[in-house]
Write a structure and sequence with these properties.
By secondary structure, the chain is an all-alpha fold. The chain is about 60% helix and about 0% strand.
C-alpha cells in the first residue's frame, strides 16, 4: 500500500471521525479507502456517464 498525503476540509474530516466513532469504520484511512473504492466502482458501473453527474464530488 502507498501513502498519500491530501488536504480535506475540517468539516469533512469531522464527519469521517463520526463514522469512525460510530463503529462504521475502524479508522479514518479505511473510511477514505472505502470512499475511493465507491467512487471507482461508480465510474466502472457507468453510473456517472448515464446521469452526467458525479455524486462523489460533493464539496
Amino acid at each position: 500500500m502507498e501513502r498519500v498525503t491530501l488536504r480535506i476540509p475540517k468539516q469533512q474530516i469531522e464527519e469521517v471521525e463520526q463514522l469512525v466513532d460510530s463503529g462504521e469504520f475502524p479508522n479514518r484511512s479505511e473510511a477514505i479507502r472505502s470512499a475511493v473504492r465507491e467512487m471507482i466502482n461508480e465510474q466502472y458501473d457507468g453510473h456517472s456517464e448515464q446521469t452526467g453527474k458525479h455524486n462523489w464530488a460533493k464539496v
